[in-house]
Amino acid sequence: MAVFAPSPAPLIATIVMALLSIIIFLPLLYWIPRYYDSILYMIDNNEISWKRGVWFKNTGIVPYEKVTNVDIGQGPLSRRVGLSSVKVQTAGYSATSGSKAELCISGIEKDEGLRDMIISQIRSRRAQTPRSTSTEVTSTEEKILSELRAIRALMEKG
């Protein structure tokens, strides 16, 4: 007659996996709602600014003068739930950081309305900025040339 007893290994493995799951998912249950609540975007007449982060706080400002593109991105899952991302790009930012956009506002339902609002802010800001006329440029160039001549004369005397 042979008697077999169940091994405690499966029970121990189950307990260890349950503890690991608690250790991993408990911080996520704490972090996810707080991170979501920490995200803040502000669009005013001069710039777009943002704040986010629970453990590591991040902030940024994107002045309208620096914006080159405002794009909308939407993957297959986002499209299914009706959400998208509005990406604000600036000159030179993507080349230095390896990122595709300086600012990405994700989870947007009315993406075209947000994009249009940002673009209208950019256009109104640029319309308010006075552009230099060719006479102003010529007068500035003449001043620079005059200053350079004075510097050259001083250097030749010395």
Describe this structure in words.
- The protein has 158 residues and is of the alpha+beta class.
- The chain has a domain at 42-128: PH-domain like (Roll).
- 53% of the residues lie in helices and 23% in strands.
- The model has no long low-confidence stretch (mean pLDDT 82).
CA(first)-CA(last) distance: 115 Å
Shape: elongated
Largest sheet: 3 strands, antiparallel
Mean pLDDT: 82
Helix content: 40-55%
The CATH class label of the domain at 42-128 is Mainly Beta
Q: Low-confidence segments, ≥5 residues, pLDDT <50?
A: none
Give the radius of gyration.
29 Å
Strand portion: 15-25%
CATH topology of the domain at 42-128: PH-domain like
Side by side, the strands of the main sheet go 1-2-3
What is the correct CATH architecture of the domain at 42-128?
Roll
Q: Could you give the order of the helices and strands? A: HEEEEHEHEHH
Count all strands and give the number. Answer: 6
Number of helices: 5
The helix/strand class is alpha+beta
Give the SSE map:
Layout: H1 9-38, E1 40-43, E2 47-52, E3 58-63, E4 67-73, H2 76-81, E5 84-90, H3 93-97, E6 103-108, H4 111-128, H5 134-157
Antiparallel strand pairs: 1-2, 2-3, 4-5, 5-6
